[in-house]
Give the backbone structure.
Amino acid sequence: MKRDNPIIHIDNVDHVYPNNTSALKNISLRINQGELVAIMGQNGAGKTTLIRTLNGLIRPTKGSIYIKGEKNSDKSIADLSKIIGIIFQNPMHQLFSNTIEEELKFSMKNLGYNKEQIQHEVDNFLNKFNLAKYRDRSPFNLSGGEAKKLALATIICREPEIIVFDEPTLGQDAKEIDFFLSLIQNELNKGKTIIMVTHNIEFVFENIPRTILMAEGQIIADGPTEKVLTNDFLVRKASLILPQIHQLKLGLKEIGIEVPNEIFKEQDMISFIDNYLKAKLANR
């Protein structure tokens, strides 16, 4: 996995909170432009602290962070937020306007658009995120799923080069997760770098190519998802559970059925089992 020209370079970073809690310990990490990466681990592993160091919300106690080759300690939070957009786990932490339309207009006000262009873009995003019918509603009167969509829209509309999601699939139904998958694929097609903090191991196993595991403020694994999340020792150390599809593979292997390594998705597994059973019946 090449890391020659990282858009994010974290070099020996520590962070200790005022109460002497050591949240990050000697973190070194490189992420290239256009990568899709998951960060996983138990609560308190340091995941949220790590992503908040990226845009300056938290400054490291020790070490350096470089974004696009420039040290982020030399930049303000406002400057960093033009490059890095973070969508928090609780969308209400980043919504504050009186209406949904005003929320989007505020996000776009520093993009150099005139009033007509801003209105055009606002209308476009309201339709894209299926929020047009709520344009005059307060963000605080939205459902949890709608509020998450609005928070997504307020970040995506600014076109940051790096997008960070904190537990994006939490509380989302299948339709909302499909919408999210389509959204991140569209952003990846634009060359965006996407980092996702999540506990959803099934989602990561099926959709994210690279996984970073954290435990007690340290990175304990970083590599291809299919290798990291099928390593029982590492998964247990991160207080996670092996993906269900991998558990099924192991169970099938015990009874003499070998499942191809490239099968990671639920639908692919269903098709494999269906074809296997059909072949068995045909050979009777």
Remarks:
- The mean pLDDT is 91.
- Strands lie at 6-16, 22-32, 36-40, 62-67, 70-71, 84-87, 162-166, 193-197, 210-215, 218-224.
